[in-house]
Specification:
There is one protein chain. The chain is an alpha/beta fold and about 325 residues long. The chain has two domains: about 140 residues, Medium-chain alcohol dehydrogenases, catalytic domain (Quinone Oxidoreductase, Chain A, domain 1, Alpha-Beta Complex); about 130 residues, Rossmann fold, CATH 3.40.50.720. Helix content is about 30%, strand content about 30%. It contains nine helices and 16 strands. Strands 3, 5, 6, 7, 8, 15 and 16 form a seven-stranded mixed β-sheet that branches. A six-stranded parallel β-sheet has the order 11-10-9-12-13-14, with helices on both faces. The chain has a three-stranded antiparallel β-sheet with strand order 2-1-4, with no helix packed on it. Strand 15, helix 9 and strand 16 form a beta-alpha-beta unit. Helix 2 crosses helix 8. The protein is globular and about 60 Å long. The chain starts with a strand and ends with a strand.
Length: about 325
């Protein structure tokens, strides 16, 4: 079996990405072999490629999320069959490929009514939303949640999930077009951060109380402002660093003047527990049945992985980017 794979040999900008064809061995006894049909592109892929998240063992593949068809099974695999559609979020890296081998316990059988591209656009982001809204800070009616980059891939999913929980959603966006998109997916209040101070706007909307929960996917200096936008005894989750790593946060900024909890949860750690991973995936499928919907910005050929990284990092995309083998 020949597999087209996107790989990199050293950390760097998108020019380090290479497209290669390599022989793929038969699956091990506890593995399955998958022919991918849709591949998710996520910021964690950029962090791996750039070296922000070190990768053990270079050269390496890229990507953690995909959907496909099982083309072979290992001798010990009993619960999955050839021809079955599955999805996964998993390490080791390697989702940017036409075919790959995967530990069978990481594969999640897909319900017939869910389309491949829908799942590839939503699974990792949906599990992240589950982690944030169900585990980190359970939301309920009456809560205010501030979601940065509300028109991004995670932002649109998290906005919908928060609304299903009964919360009021305040989103930050970079343009009127993104504000329109976030509003169409349920955001109650939109703040264009380039022309408005989001801390002031959150305080105005909440009558000076602040947001019960803040999800900060921006990082850099924005994180300190996110703490200011939080309510007393609220929670700020730092889940990204598109603006760079945040600086040191003095403990005095977390209280006692205004006590705020700060957490930096990692979704890959969250799903390292296999039963929890499968429960979270099922929760995503349930939300899809209840009306959660993806917004796919574009689908690019697998060979254009470098372009996908450039576009995602530019901040101009709306919703999810996918690769097509």
């Amino acid at each position: 079996m020949q597999s087209i794979q996107i790989r990199f040999s050293q950390p760097g900008d998108p020019t380090v990405i290479q497209c290669q064809t390599q022989a793929l061995a038969a699956p091990a006894p506890d593995e399955i072999q998958i022919q991918h049909t849709a591949i998710g592109v996520n910021f964690v892929d950029i962090y791996h490629r750039s070296g922000q998240y070190p990768v053990a063992g270079l050269p390496s593949g890229l990507g953690v999320e995909a959907v496909g068809l099982i083309t072979a099974t290992g001798s010990a695999v009993r619960h999955l069959q050839i021809g079955q559609r599955v999805a996964y979020v998993s390490l080791p890296l390697g989702a940017y490929s036409s075919h790959r081998n995967l530990p069978a316990h990481r594969a999640i059988a897909l319900p017939e009514h869910l389309e491949d591209q829908t799942v590839a656009a939503l699974l990792l982001r949906g599990i992240t939303a589950h982690m944030l809204v169900e585990q980190v800070h359970p939301l309920r009616a009456g809560h205010h949640v501030l979601i940065h980059a509300a028109a991004g891939g995670l932002g649109l999913v998290l906005t919908q999930w928060a609304k299903m929980s009964g919360a009021t959603v305040i989103g930050t966006v970079g343009s009127p077009a993104k504000a329109k998109l976030a509003h169409a997916h349920g955001a109650d209040h939109l703040v264009e951060y380039k022309t408005m101070n989001f801390v002031d706007e959150v305080m105005r909307i909440t009558d000076g109380r602040g947001a019960d929960f803040v999800v900060d996917s921006i990082g850099g200096s924005t994180l300190a402002q996110s703490l200011e936008a939080a309510a007393a005894f609220g929670t700020v989750a730092s889940v990204g660093q598109v603006a760079g790593l945040p600086g040191d946060i003095p403990i005095t900024q977390l209280g006692p003047r205004k006590p705020v909890a700060l957490i930096r949860p990692g979704v890959m750690q969250y799903i390292s527990d296999t039963p929890r991973y499968h429960r979270a995936a099922q929760a995503v499928f349930d939300k899809l049945t209840q009306g959660l919907r993806p917004h796919i910005d574009s689908v690019l050929p697998l060979q254009d992985a470098a372009l996908a990284h450039i576009r995602l990092a530019s901040g101009t995309t709306q919703g999810a980017l996918l690769l097509r083998p």
